[in-house]
Specification:
The structure holds 2 protein chains of 2 kinds.
Chain A (H helix, E strand, L loop, with lengths): L6 H6 L15 H16 L31 H10 L8 E6 L2 E6 L3 H5 L3 E4 H7 L1 H7 L10 H10 L4 E5 L9 E7 L4 E3 L2 E6 L4 E10 L5 E12 L4 E9 L3 E12 L4 E8 L4 E10 L5 E10 L4 E10 L5 E10 L4 E10 L7 E10 L5 E10 L5 E9 L3 H8 L5 H17 L5 H17 L1
Parallel strand pairs in A: 1-5, 4-7, 5-8, 6-9, 7-9, 8-10, 9-11, 10-12, 11-13, 12-14, 13-15, 14-16, 15-17, 16-18, 17-19, 18-20
Antiparallel strand pairs in A: 1-2, 3-4
Chain B lengths: L24 E2 L6 H11 L3 H16 L23 E2 L13 H10 L1 H8 L2 E6 L2 E7 L1 H5 L3 E4 H7 L1 H7 L10 H9 L4 E5 L9 E6 L10 E6 L4 E9 L7 E3 L2 E6 L4 E9 L4 E11 L4 E8 L4 E4 L2 E4 L5 E10 L4 E10 L5 E10 L4 E10 L4 E13 L5 E11 L2 E12 L2 H9 L4 H17 L4 H15 L5
Parallel strand pairs in B: 3-7, 6-8, 7-9, 8-11, 9-12, 10-13, 11-13, 12-14, 13-15, 13-16, 14-17, 15-18, 16-18, 17-19, 18-20, 19-21, 20-22, 21-23
Antiparallel strand pairs in B: 1-2, 3-4, 5-6
Helix pairs in contact in B: 1-2, 2-8, 9-10, 10-11
The chains are: A alpha/beta, B alpha/beta.
């Protein structure tokens, strides 16, 4: 597999705001879409705090002028990155991207290939599976505030993952994808297009990491996750960008009748990380679970915006977001349950819990409901509090030092979300990442 | 002019009638500096009030409509077609005999004299812009309580009035508070001296009776240290073809250890824009409680707030909203915690019927380094028909480790089992529905003074008529 970018283009390290890098091996129709998207990016206004969808968000951190397209990856760096790309022991397949270049690929088994599973880089899928690709690639508008950045992504995306699981195929072990940022002020535009056909079953875990945890960088990713009728899709994101990275991620999940989708987003890294998650329940009996865990320390800012969009009747959604905040960190949650007209018998739940561990931490919660149908059961809850003194006392009275006791309580608080995955190997990997973050302080 | 409808079935369209307008003073339609000077001249405002009004006008004209978050329906208000000041040209009356005959008849239909006979301490009724009738029971007056119209308040009690006027809600708080600051007239001024506990609720009825006429009353209540007062306001308005604007500002100041309870039953006719700013300031150990009930109007935007400025102060908002066909009740609450050990409680219940839309918008703010602040928010919404709509948009900010905030909301419909059970016992579906809805709001309604809770239940029953079957 070769990169579609030539070395010369990479060496230029142009600023991303100077526009699209030309001369890629993309089909004409895709390049046209990209120039359209670029025009859109330029014409759309930058978000301000006055926009309801950016309320409480520190939009000043979204100055993109310093950021450049990635530089050249030397052999040593490449080896180092591959060495650090340790994830799960058992995977069905694996792709590793560094600076949007595919640097490693473990393909799916012959057996899965024979049954029609397609797992390949985006630029190949758009040629070899143009119909499927065009039908689903960024087919939903970004409605949660980042239309401008979704356009930027579309204009500048150069690689990514395409995964198609055909009817009735169940992939038991997870598929793993790594995205690495490397180089000063580098930027990446990760993309995942996942189509699970009728009754298919698949789990994908994506890791977002920085080669150097101190360097500034910019990530602007989009995921399209499609669960066909009766399909079961699990998506896990483990975000551990470096401490000076600005990141935007826009995910859209479409859940057809009797299908179920579960997503878990772990946010640990970045200076500013905004995550938009739209879950559309378009068929009777669809179910969506939206889970997220964030540990925010120092000056970190996490901004999560969600929409549980109940388009069809007899659908269920359940959201659970938990944040632990230390230092001067800020977490913002803006979530909406929307029950469209005629989406009767909806069962929707939304809960956000903030655990404030320092006096300077700040948690903003905006759990919203818009109900346009009746015969629904919708509830939401938001809490913000600190560690329960009684729990702390209990642990201390058993001889556990206060700092360890605090950590235990925080871990327990976050584990409740992670356990919902019911996939021990992934749970363990995520817990380890959280522990590493605590250990770093 | 409409003629009086027959006075049968009095509850059904309470307030849906009008008498000929006899307005001596009329500032004409539209809003300009000329309007402000006209109002100030007629009201013989002191210079500082005139300046205050002009600043209000400037801010109003500068500020855009808040349609980036609020209903686009606001754009249908034509501010040039509204009459900003009307007055019967009479000063406030204290004796019943002096009140003009047609106004008396209006009051009679609203039942004011009867209620007064019951146990009201004082009546401050507003007919259009001016208080035409005002009577304070002897006992209250003897306690040193001041209960007058806002114009009288600023003229006769400037030393208390000026200190707090416009301080809780600054002119530039929002576009409509600025509008009110420019053209306010009417409303009440209440001062309760230290330690005085006013036993009976003070009451005022506000009514609109001139087509296209916006009413901009301004109320300021100051409860001095350790005092207690309850204020009740109920609104009814005759129906007219063109939309009417009501934009009030209510400021409450509860000094150390004082308690203020402010009760509103809003039943404007279905063409009124009701855009009200209400805020209370609670000093140390003080308590401000808003009980807010919205049944009428086309669009209501009202978010009673409490600024918890003093240690151990308490704020509470209990609200009921009922949105019927064509109505949008955009209500909520704001709690700004600004001192340690402050507690706030918000309980909101809404019912959407037909194409009605009920919205809860809330704000809870706990800044850093505060300790032991608590907030509890509960919002429950009930949807009656398939076309009904409800929204919840809370915003909660918490900093630091010493505080506990919880928010809960639920949306549901009347349970089919409950309806079945009641029907099985011989109630019609409509009766069962009405009973069920009343049960939904019952725990809140129980906290209202008795006569209000009776009136409220009746209003809910009337609104529920025709919504099922």
């Amino acid at each position: 597999m070769t990169s579609s970018l030539t070395v010369d283009e990479m060496a230029g390290s142009k600023g991303i705001l100077s526009g699209r890098v030309e001369s890629r091996d993309f089909p004409d129709w895709f390049r046209e879409q990209q120039s359209e998207a670029w025009k859109q990016f330029e014409s759309l206004p930058s978000p301000t705090r006055k926009d309801q969808l950016w309320r409480f968000s520190n939009v000043d951190l979204l100055d993109l002028s310093p950021f450049k397209f990635g530089g050249i990856l030397g052999d040593d760096e490449r080896a180092a990155i591959l060495d650090q790309s340790r994830g799960l022991d058992e995977v069905a397949a694996r792709l590793i991207f560094a600076g949007d270049q595919l640097i490693h690929r473990d393909v799916v088994s012959e057996q899965l290939k024979k049954r029609g599973v397609i797992f390949q880089p985006l630029e190949r899928a758009m040629v070899e599976h143009a119909d499927l690709f065009r039908k689903h690639f960024m087919s939903q508008p970004a409605v949660l505030g980042s239309a401008k950045f979704a356009a930027l992504h579309q204009a500048l995306v150069s690689s990514g993952t395409f995964l198609y699981v055909p009817r009735g195929v169940e992939i038991e072990t997870p598929i793993e994808i790594f995205h690495w940022l490397y180089g000063e002020n580098a930027s990446v535009f990760p993309h995942l297009l996942l189509v699970a056909d009728e009754l298919a079953k698949v789990t994908v875990i994506e890791s977002f990491r920085s080669a150097d945890r101190h360097l500034a960088g910019f990530a602007c990713g989009v995921n399209d996750l499609i669960a066909g009728p009766g399909a079961k899709v699990t998506y896990v994101c483990a975000q551990t960008w470096g401490e000076n990275v600005r990141a935007l991620q826009m995910n859209t999940t479409t859940v057809d009748h009797d299908a179920s989708a579960m997503s878990l987003n772990l946010h640990l890294g970045g200076r500013y990380s905004r995550f938009e998650s739209l879950s559309r329940l378009i068929g009777d009996g669809a179910r969506s679970d939206l889970l997220a865990v964030a540990v925010a320390t120092n000056e970190q800012e996490f901004d999560a915006r969600t929409l549980q969009d109940h388009v069809s009747a007899h659908t269920a959604s359940d959201l659970l977001y938990k944040n632990a905040l230390e230092g001067r960190a800020r977490c913002t949650f803006g979530g909406l349950i929307r029950v469209e007209p005629h989406a009767h018998f909806t069962d929707a739940y939304q809960k956000v819990r903030n655990l404030l561990l320092s006096d300077d931490a700040e948690a903003n919660s905006m759990p919203g409901l818009e109900i346009l149908a009746d015969n629904v059961r919708c509830t939401h809850g938001a809490t913000s509090g600190q560690i329960d003194e009684d729990e702390l006392f209990y642990l201390r009275s058993r001889g556990i030092p206060i700092t360890v006791a605090q950590r235990l309580i925080v871990t327990g608080f976050l584990n409740e979300v992670i356990k919902r995955l019911d996939q021990p190997a992934i749970e363990h990997a995520l817990q380890q990442l959280i522990e590493e973050k605590f250990a770093h302080q | 002019m409409k003629t009086e409808t027959k006075a049968v079935d009095i509850n059904r369209n309470i307030g849906d009638f009008a008498y000929p307008e006899v307005h001596v003073r009329d500032a004409g339609t539209g809003l300009s500096e000329k309007t402000i000077h006209y109002i100030s001249d007629v009201k013989e405002d002191p210079d500082w009030v005139r300046e205050f009004r002009l600043r209000g006008l400037k801010t109003f004209l500068e500020k855009p409509l808040p349609t980036h978050w609020a209903s686009k329906d606001l754009e249908t208000i034509n501010f040039d077609k509204i009459r900003y000041y009307l007055s019967p040209g009479t000063t406030a009356k204290r004796s019943w005999d002096e009140v003009p005959e047609d106004i008396k008849r209006t009051f009679e239909r609203l039942g004011i004299p009867e209620q007064e006979r019951k146990f009201l301490a004082g009546v401050e009724a507003q007919f259009d812009s001016e208080a035409v009738y005002s009577n304070i029971k002897k006992a209250v007056g003897e306690q040193g309580v001041i209960f007058v119209g806002s114009t009288e308040g600023l003229k006769n009690h400037p030393e208390i009035f000026r200190k707090w006027f416009g301080k809780v809600i600054p002119i530039a708080d929002n576009k409509f508070s600025a509008l009110n600051s420019a053209v306010f007239s009417g409303g009440s001024f209440i001062y309760v001296p230290p330690g005085v506990k006013v036993k009976h609720p003070l009451q005022a009825y506000f009514r609109i009776n001139a087509e296209n006429f916006g009413q901009f009353e301004r109320t300021l209540i100051i409860a001095d240290e350790g005092s207690e007062v309850t204020y009740m306001e109920g609104c009814t308005a005759p129906k007219f073809n063109t939309a009417t604007l009501h934009s009030a500002v209510v400021e409450l100041v509860a000094l150390k250890g004082a308690k203020i309870q402010y009760i509103t039953v809003q039943n404007w006719s279905a063409n009124v824009f009701n855009l009200v700013t209400k805020r209370g300031l609670a000093h140390e150990n003080a308590e401000v409680k808003w009980i807010d009930c919205n049944i009428g109007s086309r669009l209501t935007m009202k978010y009673p707030s409490v600024v918890l400025k003093g240690r151990k102060s308490r704020g509470e908002v209990l609200s009921i909203a009922l949105a019927n066909n064509g109505q949008h009740q955009d209500t909520g609450a704001k709690m700004i915690h600004a001192a340690d050990e402050t507690t706030s409680n918000i309980i909101s219940k809404s019912i959407s019927i037909g194409t009605g839309r009920a919205t809860y918008r809330g704000l809870v703010h706990v800044p850093k380094h505060l300790k032991h602040c608590k907030n509890n928010t509960e919002c429950d919404a009930l949807l009656i028909n398939a076309t009904s709509r409800t929204d919840t948009y809370p915003a909660i900010t918490v900093r630091g480790t010493g505080n506990a905030v919880q928010h809960e909301a639920s949306v549901s419909q009347v349970s089919a089992e409950q309806i079945f059970y009641m029907q099985q016992r011989g109630l019609s579906e409509a009766q069962a529905m009405s009973l069920s809805v009343n049960g939904f709001v019952n725990d809140l309604v129980r906290q209202f003074p008795m006569e209000y809770s009776v009136e409220l239940k009746r209003l809910i029953e009337l609104e529920m008529e025709g919504s099922v079957g």
